[in-house]
Design a protein that fits this description.
Blueprint lengths: L12 H17 L7 H10 L15 H12 L5 H10 L8 H12 L9 H16 L3 H9 L4 H29 L1
Helix pairs in contact: 6-8, 7-8
């Protein structure tokens, strides 16, 4: 494989990292004698650029080095936003049906779909629709930060909405008291 020269903040860093990692794994298994951990770590180090090396320079095993690199290149996914992207994706002008279906397949991989019963799927879909349909972008943003299920989402949204109203009342009372 080529030397890894990749900015962790690049928009396609994860895609390039996964491809590079796969080619590096293939490189390691191509040896007739399987390399030990020290040899794997040395091979990894030799295939990293001077800008990538510092991310794993303090690692003493191959596994911890790969975990450190994976952590910087693979960012946590926001399931709700990923599903929104999938649901709102439409065929682009000049895009073939094959290309469109491929784009949907790629987007669906970010959605962390799992085997679930209908009730769980229903709750997740209602949660996602609830968040997508909110008028307040501030509340939507807060919910996208951390909402695991329908009840938590609704409770948090209700609390945020009430705090906005209370804040407005406090502001209005301050004006009245100043007069």
């Amino acid at each position: 494989p080529r030397q890894l020269e990749l900015d962790p903040n690049a928009s396609d860093a994860e895609k390039h990292w996964k491809h590079w990692k796969k080619t590096f794994d293939n490189f390691l298994v191509s040896f007739t004698d399987q390399p030990n951990d020290v040899q794997k770590l040395a091979a990894l180090t030799n295939h990293l650029s001077h800008t990538v090396y510092p991310y794993m320079s303090s690692c003493t095993t191959y596994a911890t080095a790969m975990a450190a690199l994976t952590e910087i290149y693979v960012k946590p996914k926001n399931e709700i936003y990923s599903r929104h992207c999938l649901l709102s994706r439409q065929q682009q002008e000049g895009e073939s049906v094959d290309e469109y279906m491929h784009a949907l397949d790629v987007l669906s991989k970010e959605c962390t779909f799992e085997d679930v019963v209908a009730a769980v799927y229903r709750d997740e879909y209602v949660r996602d629709s609830f968040i997508r349909g909110l008028k307040s972008s501030d509340i939507r943003q807060r919910l996208l930060e951390e909402c695991t299920n329908r009840n938590t989402t609704f409770t948090k949204a209700r609390t945020l909405e009430l705090s906005v109203k209370n804040s407005q009342l406090i502001g209005n009372n301050s004006i009245i008291n100043a007069i």
